[in-house]
Structures are given as C-alpha cells and as structure tokens.
Amino acid sequence: MAPHSRADKIPIITDVDENAPLTAADRREATTLLVQRKMHLVNEELDRLGFGRYQLCIFFLCGMGYFLDLMWALLFGLVLPPLQRELGIPDAQIGDLGTCFSAGLTLGAFFWGVAVDIIGRRWAFNLTCLFASASGTAFGFPSNYYALLALAFLTGIGVGGNISIDATITLEFLPKKNRYLLVALSIFQPLGVVVCSGMAFGLIPPFSCDQTLKSCLLTSAPCCEPSTNRGWRYLTFAVGGLTFLTFVVRFLIFSFQESPKFLLTRGKDDRALAAVEYIAKFNRQTCNLRITDFTELDEAASHHRYIDKEVVPNGICSRFTHVFGHALKSHGHHLKGLFKTWRSARITLTVWLIYITDFWGFTMAGFLPLILSNLGIKNDVSIYHTYLNYIIINTCGIPGVLIATGIIEIKFLGRKWSMLIASMFMSASCFLFVFVDGPIERVGFNAMEYFFQSMFNAILYGWTPEVFPAQLRDARCLSDPEPNEMSGKSFQ
C-alpha cells in the first residue's frame, strides 16, 4: 500500500467492539459511510478532470429532457382550442385533459423515482423519452375524447420523470466548480416552449377550421370538420417525433455511462471505476483513480460484518422482485431521513410547499391558450395573431433563465433572495393580468409573469438537489414532483 494513498485523506470508520451486538441501523450507517467515502474519491476525480466533452454532452442531453418536459406541458394547452371546436367538448369538461396529464405526471414521478434505483440512471434516462414519444405520438390519432384523456395520462407518465432524473444525472457528473450550470440547465425550458409555440404557429392556424364554427357533432354544416382541422394532430406528431429523436440520440448515438455514484451504492466498484475511466478517455485525459483506492477503504473499515452485502437471486422474476423490494425498503428509509431532524423536516416541507404553489402557475399557464383564443374571438383577433402572441410571451422566459444564472452569484442575494424577488414579481403580474382588458396589456403581463416564472424555476431546480445530501437525493426527486403535480390536479 502506498504510504500516502487517497484513502488516507478521508476519515476512517471508527473501530467498534467485535463482540458488540449488531443492529440493522448499525449496518446501514456503516454501509452509508463507506459508500460516501468512495463517492468522495469519485467527486475528487471528476473535479480533477474538470468540465470536458462528456459533461458537455450530458448537459445538452439532460437539457433536452427539460426542453421536452415543457413542450408537452404547453402542447396540451395549445391544442385545446381546435380540439374543443372539433369534438364539441363542453367548457366544464375541457379541463379534464390537463387533469389526466397531471395525474400521469404524478404517477410518473413516483414510478421513475423508484425505477431509477432499480434499473439505474441509464435506463430511466432513456425510457422516459421512449415512453413519452410512443404515447404522445399516439395522441394525434383518436377522435374520441376519452381515448385522448387516456393517452394524455400515459404521456404524463413518460414525461413525469424527466426533470428529477435529468437534474440528478447532471449534478452527479458535473465538477463542483461547474455546479452553477445546474441552474443554466433550465434555459432549455423556455427554449422548448418557444419552439413548441413556433411549431404551433406554423401548423395550427393554416390547418384549423374557422374559430367561429362549432363541432359537427353538435350542429349541421357548416361545421368544424376533422379533415379541415388537422393542425393540432400535426403538432402532436411533430413533438412526438422530436421526442423519439431525442431517445435515439441518447440511446444509440451517445454512449451514456451509468452513474458511478449509483454503481457504488450497489457495491459495483469495478463498474463505477470503468465509468470514470470512460469519462476521462472521452475527455481525452487520463484517469488517476484505481480500484485499489476502493479496496483500501474497504480494508480501513476493518469490520466487514458491519457492511450490508446484498445477495441478488438468480432468475429474472426473482431478481426483479428482490431488487424492487430492496428499492422500496431503501426509499422508505430515505424518506424517513427527510424528516429525521427538525431542520431536514423543515427543509423538506418548505420545498414541497414551494413546488405545490409553483405548479399552480404552470396549471394556469396550461389554460392560457384557451383563454387568449376565446378573448381573441371576442375582440376579433385572428388565430394567427393569437398564436404569434404565444411566441412573444414564451420568448421572455429565455432572458429570465440567463439572469437567474448570474444573479445567484451575487453574494447579498444568493438563491434565497433571488427566488423571493422572482416570486413576488411573478405573483404581482398574475394579479395585474386579471384587471386589464386591452390585448397589449394582457400579452405584456403574461410575458412579465413567464419571465419571472422562468427565473424562479431555474433557481429552484438547481437549488433543490443541493440542499439534500447525496443519499437522500433520489428520495427528494421521488417526492418533490408528486405534491406539485397533485396540486395541479386539485387546482383544476
């Protein structure tokens, strides 16, 4: 053993009496401490390698998850006006589409939050896009409202895990000095809604029936016939195709490595090292981490009887049942950790409350296209002009994210005061929108609201993983989306 190894730099596990009685808590604590020490070595090596080509690819591919997340959320708002005209859906039922999508997001957040610890980051990273592209593209085919509700629910399941999984992956591969890019990742959200708005502007107005026509299911000709109202279907196919293309790039073109930190929690030290070595090679550098660095830590632990050794049975069904049960038990332990102390419980409840109220804004934004469309008909505004307004409003989110990336580095503001200021102006714009009547004022206050909402969310999504320790980060990602998405359902 080298006289000054990497293991020497990390505090060793305190020796204990060999004859002392063991408890499950003792084993968990010792195992967690050993894994944390190995993660420390991986973090040191990633910091040494710096931000290279691999991290750049991860940044853009995870950014596509953010990009697609809001594309789909906006799409279900953009298709509401032509969809309602074609199918003759009553105003009292049109909100069911958003409710089903939010319900899918809730289930998806839970499902992918558990699955990411069963199948790993790599498969969850890819399957969310594949599932969303399949169900989302299928949304463009039916002419039955209940079938559309079911497909919206399934699309929500696929989209539901995007932000939590992508944020975790980005955080685990970024060097410490580049963690600010986690906030910059949110730039892809306003970019996604701008692109979706642009696609809607090019597809819905020229391929939609007149705004004054009613459904052929409710009245005789002239009416809104499906053959003259295919724009919303074309938009769905386009976004579904883009989602599938993202899956192809993630799965077939880019060689995504499983997270070394996830592999370490599974006791697969050799595979974790192989992943770090691949990253170093991809970045055209040399990896200085060795398997002996991990084995030295194992030896330093001295009492291996304290370390949980997971034995996975043979057979696919038996293995899945075992791993799924282990993951649920692990998440139960992790979720308890969120409330272990008064400080951790206060942080957890505060984060949940922030996400709940934040999603109310998203839910209202989902009905914005229908609101503006109805106001446009009332004020004799063309459908082209209405969809052009969406582009103007959503473009304002881009500078909001860029400003958020810089404002958090101002010492007297930081993340706390920056979020407070953004939320104050965001709420003020929502109140002012209610009291104005002119089309210019409506667009202006909507643009103001989206500017500060994008600023707020950019800081929030980057700040949330940072306030939780690594061993609770997956539990946080499992739990955070659920309250806010459930709040969206109750709001509707």
Structure write-up:
By secondary structure, this protein is an all-alpha fold. Helices cover 73% and strands 0% of the residues. It has 23 helices and no strands. α2 (53-78) packs across α10 (188-203). The termini are far apart. The model is unreliable at 10-18, 304-316 and 474-492 (pLDDT under 50).
Sum this structure up briefly.
By secondary structure, the chain is an all-alpha fold. The chain contains 23 helices and no strands.
Q: Percent of residues in beta strands?
A: under 5%
Overall SS class:
mainly alpha
Taking the alpha carbons of the first and last residues, their distance comes to 63 Å
- Mean of residue pLDDT values: 79
Largest sheet: none
Helix content: over 70%
What is Rg? 25 Å
User: How many strand units?
Assistant: 0
Shape: globular
Number of helices: 23
- Reading the helices and strands in chain order gives HHHHHHHHHHHHHHHHHHHHHHH
> In terms of per-residue confidence, which ranges show pLDDT below 50 for 5 or more consecutive residues?
10-18, 304-316, 474-492
What key phrases describe this protein's structure?
23 helices; single chain; 492 residues; disordered C terminus
Describe the secondary-structure layout.
Blueprint: H1 24-49, H2 53-78, H3 80-87, H4 91-94, H5 96-115, H6 120-138, H7 145-160, H8 162-173, H9 181-184, H10 188-203, H11 231-253, H12 260-265, H13 269-282, H14 291-301, H15 316-337, H16 342-366, H17 368-378, H18 383-395, H19 397-407, H20 414-434, H21 439-466, H22 470-479, H23 481-491
